[in-house]
Structure formats: C-alpha cells, structure tokens
Design a protein that fits this description.
It comes from Francisella adeliensis. By secondary structure, this protein is of the alpha+beta class. The chain has 4 domains: about 140 residues, 2-Layer Sandwich (TATA-Binding Protein), CATH 3.30.310.280; about 200 residues, no CATH class; about 180 residues, Transferase(Phosphotransferase), domain 1, CATH 1.10.510.40; about 180 residues, Gcn5-related N-acetyltransferase (GNAT) (Aminopeptidase). The protein has 29 helices and 34 strands. The longest helix has 28 residues. The protein is elongated and about 105 Å long. The relative contact order is 0.07.
Length: about 775
C-alpha cells in the first residue's frame, strides 16, 4: 500500500463498518435477514431501494463475526463496495431512529475513532509475534481499543495534536507536570505503612524535589504547607490553568514544572506507567475527555477511599487460605489525593465531570510483584489480531509448546479461581475485562492473574454476606452495592462477553477450536472449584453462573439510546436489553453429556468428538445415500470448519449414535426457536428438533431408524424438557412416514426449504408419553 492517508482511511473505515454491523447486530440495533440458501449470507434492509449484504459467521453468543471485505451496498439496484462506516450510520438512520443530537455527536466520535485508527495504520503494522515479545508498557500501547465499543477512540476533548502526544497507541513519551497545592485544599489518603513524605521521596528524585521546594519558596510560601501533586500535561493546559484560576492567582496552587521521568500512557489513557523507573508507581490522573462511556475524571469518594479499600481487600487475600495459594496479584492503590474545585463543588447535582478535575491515585507497579522468570502482559492482548490475521493468543500457545486444550486448562486454572472465591465467599466482584486484568506468564505458559482498578470497579452484594462485616463504613459508602443478578454481570458480561466472546471466536476462526469446547474448559474449572469448596454450596446457588440465560447488557446502546450526550450528575449505568443465551450452560451440558452418556433401550448417545469422530463422519457424509440429502460431501478441512461452526452456536448439539454398541449414526439436536426452521412454521416455546443420518450402507434397511427416532425423541423430552419435538425429513425419505405416527408424531404437511421439500412432523410430550405408557413404542 502506498503511503497514502486516504488509502489507510479506507482500510480503517472498512474495518470499523464491519465492526459496527457485527456489534449492532449483537445488540439488536440491526436485525439482518439470513439468506435461505446460504446461512452465512445476511441482508440488512433499510427500505425497498437500499440494503447492505454481507457474509458472517454466527458465534456462540449469537453474535455475527462479519467476514473481511464482504459487505456490499445496494441502492436502486446498483452495487458498490461498502467501505464508509459513517455512511452506513447515515444510511441506516431510518431503522435506528437515533436522536438527531445524539447522531451528530456519534458521528463526531466515529470520526475521531477513524482518525486514530488511520494514524495507527500509518505508523506501520507490527506482527502479533513481535508485540507479544515487547515489554509490558509497550504491549499496552499497541492495543487497538475496546473490542466492543464502536466509538472506542472517541476521546472528545482531544485535538489532532493531543492525539499525537497523548494517545496510548502513539507511544510518545509523557513528562508529568507538577503542582504545589495548599494543604488546606487537599484530601490525602494512604495505606497504613506509607505516608506523604515516603511517597514523595519514592516518586521524586532529591534534586528535583529541592528544585520544587525552591519554586514554592520563591512564591513566598512554606513548602511544608503545600502538597506536591502530579497533573497530566493535557489536563494542565486544557482544564487547570483556566478552571482553577482563582487558586493559581492567590498562590494556593503553584505550577512547579515538569519532571524528567518518562511515562507512557496505558490503554485507559489517564493511567501512566513510568518507563524510566518501572519499579515506581503507576499514576492514575484525571482527564476531562469523554471516551467510550464516561468522562475520565477521578470522583472524590472513590479516590480518597482507594487506599482503605486496598488494605481491606489485601487483608482478605493475605488471610484467606484459598486465596493465599493462588498466584493472584492485587495491584494496590496505595495513596490518593483529591483537590475540589472552588465553585463547581458547591453546586448540587452538577455534572459529575466538573467535580473530578484534579487529583491522583498511585498504584503499585506490576514489575514489583513478579517472581523470578515471570512476565506480565495485558489480558486485552488475547483479543489482538494483526493485519495478517495472526493472533497474540495463537503466538502464546505456539510458544508454550502446549495443545490448545492444555493451554486453556492452565489459563482458566490460574485466572478464574480467585475471582470465583471473591464472588462466592465475599459477595464481591472486580471488573475483570481485558484492560483491568493482567496475565502472568512463565515459560510462555499462563501462571497467574493480576487485577487493578479496585476503587472504580469493585462492587458488593446488596444483601451482604457475613464475610463483609469487617468492611469499613467509609468504604461501604464508596463501593456500589448491587443486587445479585447485577453482581453476576461483572463476571457474565465483564469477563465472558467483553473478553471471552472475542477469545473463543478467535480460536474458532483461526484454529478451528469449537467454542463449546472453550466453555466446557471454563465449566470444568468452575466445577473443580465448587467441588473443592463444599462449604460454599449455598452461595453457588445464590450466585448462579449456570442459568440458561442472563440479562443482556449493551454498551453501544448505552450511548446511542439510553443516555445520549446529555450531562448527568452521576456516571451512567448500563441497562439490560433482553436475554442472552449462556454459553457456560452449554459448556456444562456438553461436559455432563460426556460424563453420563444417554442410553435408551438398544440405542446409546455420546456427543460428537471434534478430533476423533471427524474422519468417520467425513466418510459418511461422502456416501452417496447421505450426500444427496445432506449436501455435505466436502473435503475433510471444509467439514472440519463446518463442525467447528456448529459447535460454536448456542442452539445446537451434535452426537454419535450406536445400536447395540456399534456406532453407525450421526444426529443433530437443535432448539427450534433459534433455528432457521422458525421462518417456515409456527414454533412454540421449548420446541426442539433433530436431524439424523445412518452412515454405513450395510446398516440401511435393518429397522434402526425406528430405534433412533424413538431415542432422539426420548432424549429431547427427558433431558431437554421439550414441550414438542419436530423433524423435517425430505419427502423422498419415505420410511419416516411409517415410523413417525407409531411414536406419536403428526404429519403437519409439506414445507418448502431452500434445499428440499420436506414433511414437518411434530410430537407433543403428552403424545409421546401416551405411546410410551401403552407400550406401543419400538423395542
């Protein structure tokens, strides 16, 4: 590609357009129509003259992963490549009905995001392998933003020059500015074994501290009466100089100058890592820019209570026998300072960002907590894919020398149990999304987890557990208390949806590793924890991670529909929109099915094994008697992708069936309301359907179909609690017409599917039970 900004912009815009379609479909802002003859082709219809068509793969959360460069725009029958993300937003306005004011601001944020993405491309690509090998701070700077928010680099308040200077991905050195602030204006807090003098001596070199004191004295002030506070250069130039003029003019605030230590901005933009002295604290500073969901200031209560909360949480971790055995690092917020504004603080219900302009939080550096041979990498890196399609998680697994199965087992074993323990025993959650979590690696293998950002993201249960009795009153006031379902959202949405949704999709796409297997591994880790902590059984029921569905939170809807760009006195809270199928439920079911195979008379079931069954089913699919009905007479590699996609869907399970111990058949069981069949007939709640093939020719015509239909029906009614079971055989498969009525099925007539004419057979639970009670089912 030529060094042409326009070309880079087109690449960035195309990628953003694909992301908008994917995430807006997930949040049901867009509702595309699936093509009848090709399940990976979708149409997003705006009106009779305008639509977008695209290719996409449906994943386990029901989300669509749009295929690269597959989106085509049709207007008045004229086809064009879709590469303009903002044009898509304008085109689809008639179906989104976004408020005009919100629309204008949304486009502003999209433009800012596109500008930032274009600048990243101009810098030149860096491979996933090379990023993986970088030091911790540099890896953070190579991340490309929140994977879910479409406006992940909106950064309202930054101009182009600010972006170049302060955006994390630009990797430019930042030298902090320093202020002296009258002690009368400062609220300061620190952990019990630290004080202000120790903090100052740790963070500021003696020569520079002497220079700062002389500057204070030159203003006829006593250094002992002033607190020395860092400030982000952008905040100083754009907020403090103008908004704190009264303090500056009467020397209650004195500008001291810049320090020599070099810092890099982390993903959150406002947190800075010291690369001159990596052992020094990371510093979190307010930035009055709007990015993703909120303005990035520092609220007073959370800021001042951060050290108290750190001590309390660390005390739990140190004294709890289970947690002490985990390689779980809590990066403590050891000290904090807050300076209130002279006027905004007096206004009741003032927009929150006016009162969050000046302060700091000092956090432990990850480098001070690592053991010999360990290194740290942001968990967000696991969702990174470079311009050549290579992933950092792929590089991690490759470098470790482990199989994907073994690597994932280690990953979950060393990252999940501590989070579960805080949830189940203490009714407490962190927000363990990729930016807040740090993976600890040794010999390229995952061996631990570090968490940061306690004060912003810890929540506790509204109806407290007894273990929360020691929580200090001042901390209780600063920590949100939420109901149990919302508490679980920090795991279900904050970890599973925000993070695992992308990791499992990458493994499925790049390595044909089924998503159901990913969540089976997660389930086994949770089950192992629960089996070894039986004293918490009541909590497992109370904080139930295994419900079939959970509330669906939608981050883009928050900005676009729920809060817009109005000012609020408090930070906005995401509201649920519908329900989301829980892949952990599927993972548990998949594991349980393997542990206790289903048997009915002469028939036995077991779940399809992606690795060991592929060759046999590939052979069956290419048999003429199967191929003419299933149309899956493909290469082994194509069939492997097909089965990976099936095992990455939330509504379908696949099985190998045996008669008298001999495996001869393959079956699919699906939830009808989630299947394409719902477009061709009336579906009732909790209807299930099945498909069946018998592989070996020599097994045809021996009456096995009778046994399989009964067994499949029994399975759906007894294990899935189906209300009705249906199947839709090709009208050429005549044996089913004789078999079905004897089991309780009714022929509802013909339906026309894209690839076949079929009979629709349905069987109610009552009809099946009646036949079973009469002894009329087949033996």
């Amino acid at each position: 590609m030529k060094n042409d900004k326009y070309n880079y912009y087109k690449v960035a815009s195309t990628k953003l357009l694909e992301k908008v379609i994917s995430e807006f479909c997930y949040e049901e802002i867009f509702v595309p129509i699936q093509n009848d003859s090709d399940e990976e082709t979708y149409t997003l219809k705006v009106d009779s003259s305008l639509c977008y068509k695209f290719k996409a793969t449906k994943r386990i959360y029901g989300n669509l992963v749009v295929h690269r460069n597959s989106v085509v725009r049709y207007q008045q029958g004229v086809q064009s490549i879709a590469d303009d993300a903002i044009k898509l937003i304008i085109d689809t306005w008639p179906i989104t009905n976004i408020d005009s004011v919100t629309m204008a601001h949304l486009i502003k944020e999209l433009n800012n995001t596109l500008y930032a993405d274009t600048e990243i491309l101009k810098k030149g690509s860096i491979s996933a392998n090379n990023i993986y090998k970088l030091p911790y701070a540099q890896v953070e700077g190579n991340m490309t933003g929140h994977p879910w928010f479409v406006i992940n680099k909106g950064r309202i308040g930054f101009n182009a020059s600010d972006h170049s200077s302060y955006a994390p991905e630009m990797q430019n050195i930042i030298n902090l500015k320093w202020l002296a602030i009258s002690n009368q204006l400062i609220d300061f807090a620190c952990i019990s074994d630290l004080d202000y003098t120790q903090l100052l001596n740790t963070e500021i070199e003696p020569d520079l501290l002497s220079k700062f004191n002389k500057t204070i004295q030159a203003s006829n002030k006593n250094p002992d009466e002033f607190f020395i506070l860092p400030v982000h250069p952008w905040q100083w130039e754009n907020v403090i100089e103008q908004q704190f003029t009264s303090y500056l003019s009467n020397k209650d605030i004195i500008f001291l100058g810049a320090s020599d230590d070099q810092h890099l901005a982390m993903q959150s933009i406002r947190t800075l890592s010291n690369i001159s002295h990596p052992e020094k604290h990371s510093i979190k500073l307010p930035l009055n820019i709007l990015n993703t969901a909120v303005y990035r200031g520092l609220p007073k209560d959370q800021t001042i209570n951060a050290p108290i909360l750190t001590e309390w949480v660390k005390k739990i971790a140190n004294e709890d026998t289970f947690l002490s055995k985990c390689n779980f690092i809590l990066l403590g917020e050891l000290a904090s300072a807050y300076c209130k504004h002279p006027y905004y603080s007096e206004i009741e219900n003032t927009p929150y960002y006016f009162t969050e302009q000046l302060g700091a939080i000092w956090r432990e550096s990850i480098h001070t907590r690592l053991k010999k041979g360990e290194r740290a990498i942001t968990m967000a890196a696991l969702t990174y894919v470079d311009s050549n399609g290579q992933s950092i998680i792929g590089e991690m697994i490759s470098e470790s020398g482990l199989s994907i199965d073994t690597w994932l087992e280690m990953f979950f074993e060393n990252t999940i149990p501590a989070l579960l323990h805080f949830l189940y025993k203490y009714g407490m959650v962190f927000s363990p999304h990729g930016e807040n979590s740090i993976l600890i690696i040794k010999d390229n293998m995952p061996v631990g987890l570090a968490m940061k950002d306690f004060v912003d993201d810890i929540n506790i249960c509204q109806d407290p557990v007894k273990e929360l009795a020691t929580l200090p009153d001042e901390v209780k006031k600063a920590i949100p208390r939420v109901d149990d379902d919302y508490l679980l959202q920090f795991i279900q949405t904050g970890l599973f949806v925000v993070h695992y949704r992308y990791i499992s999709s990458i493994l499925a796409e790049k390595f044909l590793y089924p998503e159901a297997h990913f969540y089976e591994k997660l389930h086994k880790c949770i089950k192992h924890y629960q089996l070894h902590n039986p004293e918490l059984n009541s909590r497992f029921d109370r904080f139930d991670l295994y419900k079939e569905s959970f509330s669906k939170l939608c981050l883009n809807r928050l900005r676009i529909f729920e809060v817009g760009y109005s000012d609020y006195s408090a930070r906005p809270k995401v509201i649920s929109t519908g329900r989301l199928d829980n892949p952990l439920f599927k993972g548990k079911y998949f594991d349980t099915s393997k542990a206790s195979s289903f048997n009915h008379k002469r028939v036995s079931f077991r779940p399809f094994n992606f690795n060991s069954d592929l060759d046999a089913v590939h052979k069956w699919m290419n048999k003429p008697h199967v191929a003419k009905f299933w149309n899956l007479d493909k290469s082994r590699e194509s069939l492997k992708k097909h089965f990976c996609d099936i095992l990455s869907k939330p509504n379908q399970d696949i099985f190998i069936l045996a008669v008298d111990g001999k495996e001869i058949a393959y079956a699919e069981i699906y939830k009808a309301e989630k299947d394409r069949i719902a477009a061709y007939c009336t579906i009732e709640e909790n209807d299930y359907g099945w498909h069946l093939l018998i592989g070996p020719e020599e097994s045809i015509g021996k009456g096995y179909s009778k046994l399989f239909v009964e067994a499949l029906s029994k399975y759906c009614f007894s294990k899935l609690d189906a209300n009705r079971v249906l199947f839709e055989p090709d009208i050429r498969v005549t044996p089913f017409e004789r078999i079905a009525p004897r089991i309780g099925y009714i022929n509802q007539g013909e339906i026309v599917l894209p690839e076949k004419k079929a009979y629709l057979f349905t069987c109610s639970k009552e009809a099946f039970s009646t036949m079973e009670a009469k002894g009329e089912l087949y033996d």
